[in-house]
Amino acid sequence: xxxxxxxxxxxxxxxxxxxxxxxxxxxxxxxxxxxxxxxxxxxxxxxxxxxxxxxxxxxxxxxxxxxxxxxxxxxxxxxxxxxxxxxxxxxxxxxxxxxxxxxxxxxxxxxxxxxxxxxxxxxxxxxxxxxxxxxxxxxxxxxxxxxxxxxxxxxxxxxxxxxxxxxxxxxxxxxxxxxxxxxxxxxxxxxxxxxxxxxxxx
Length: 202
Description:
Blueprint: H1 2-14, E1 21-23, H2 33-45, E2 50-53, E3 56-58, E4 61-63, E5 66-68, H3 72-83, E6 88-89, H4 91-97, E7 108-112, E8 119-121, E9 124-130, H5 142-158, H6 161-170, H7 173-182, H8 188-201
Parallel strand pairs: 7-9
Antiparallel strand pairs: 1-3, 2-3, 4-5, 6-7, 8-9
């Protein structure tokens, strides 16, 4: 029985491209947690997959220069499934993802309400910073990215006319609604900055 389950899990992993990041949670429809984790541990020990931390694995990608670590976004998405939560990029990363800066962030930092240890993969690190729920409003949507970026910029720069106009130009109706709703729990100056942006977008 377990041999067939092992082969089923192996086939599922094989069907994905190299660099695929997954968790034991992704296989819970196949069996219970203990059984799935035991099988994944055996595949790891056999060198078929790599382990990032307990419950979090990836299918290795080998290039002519050696093994290529998985994309940070793939790791974060898999961890999000495993932890049953959504992460919000910090301000510097939000600015870059939104195209509001061309400067690549020095660190990969994500905000969360949970206590999660940092992940080191290859020569890079993904940091997780615990914050209050209020700092996470809008996560999982572009509204969360905008709010994270605005708070990072600070009062003075967030009220820059050209920046606000640039943000306003990118917003569609749904995003305007999401941004307005998500900003309700933020500080007064952030709400004011959002109101200015929405006015420009209307």
